[in-house]
């Protein structure tokens, strides 16, 4: 993973590197992207890059992580502590819809998603992608725990199973969305928010007790 020393690099140089990396990966794809071109445009040497990152996959995953962070800042999130039983699922749906809306405006995120999952599917290069999933798993755990407090998430299964199941569904939806993005109009993509959050709700909501005879 990117080393802590990278955070001490001048912010302008950090931004220049990520801007050029984003352009290169976006234009050439992961496999076609050239570290030499990224470095030349960024005014960095290869030894400098390896001082901060393990390899090309590490640079790309760090770029994705920062992009996800930027997206969340732009669309706005929510504080789980502010959720209520009445707003829990509607807030999830609203966040999903805002995310899709931003992707509608900038398909760059879709390109990054496609490359990310191709990288994740390569056993030789996938290790850095685990960082993002660890962070996502923590966030899902917080959301599940808050839902249980509010009585809108089931408690009859182990928490680890609920979290793993939600993560599995989330990854399946992510992969499907970036693979089929071009098959749908912007409005159709937005309409998916209700359907996809409905899948999470069906998975996580407390089971309905059978009606009494």
UniProtKB/TrEMBL annotation:
Top-level taxon of the source organism: Bacteria
Endpoints of the signal sequence: none
SUPFAM superfamilies (UniProt xref): Homeodomain-like
Domain HTH tetR-type: 11-71
Alphabetized UniProt keyword annotations: DNA-binding, Transcription, Transcription regulation
DNA-binding region: 34-53
InterPro entries: Homeodomain-like_sf (IPR009057), HTH-type_TetR-like_transc_reg (IPR050109), HTH_TetR (IPR001647)
Annotated Pfam families: TetR_N
Keyword set includes Membrane: no
PANTHER family from the UniProt entry: HTH-TYPE TRANSCRIPTIONAL REGULATOR BETI, HTH-TYPE TRANSCRIPTIONAL REGULATOR RUTR
Protein name, as recorded: TetR/AcrR family transcriptional regulator
């Amino acid at each position: 993973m990117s080393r802590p020393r990278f955070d001490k690099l001048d912010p302008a140089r950090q931004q220049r590197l990520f801007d050029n990396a984003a352009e290169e990966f976006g234009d050439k794809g992961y496999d076609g992207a050239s570290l030499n071109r990224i470095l030349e445009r960024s005014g960095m040497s290869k030894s400098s890059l390896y001082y901060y990152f393990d390899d090309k996959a590490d640079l790309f995953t760090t770029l994705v992580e920062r992009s996800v962070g930027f997206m969340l800042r732009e669309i706005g999130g929510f504080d789980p502590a502010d959720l209520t039983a009445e707003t829990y699922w509607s807030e999830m749906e609203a966040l999903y819809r805002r995310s899709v809306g931003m992707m509608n405006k900038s398909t760059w995120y879709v390109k990054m998603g496609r490359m990310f999952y191709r990288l994740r599917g390569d056993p030789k290069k996938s290790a850095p992608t685990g960082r993002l999933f660890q962070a996502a798993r923590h966030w899902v755990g917080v959301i599940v725990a808050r839902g249980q407090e509010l009585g809108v998430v089931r408690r009859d299964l182990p928490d680890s199973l609920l979290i793993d199941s939600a993560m599995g569904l989330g990854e399946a939806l992510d992969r499907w969305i970036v693979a089929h993005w071009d098959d749908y109009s912007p409005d159709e993509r937005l309409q998916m928010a209700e359907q996809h959050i409905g899948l999470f709700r069906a998975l996580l909501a407390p089971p309905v007790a059978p009606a009494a005879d």
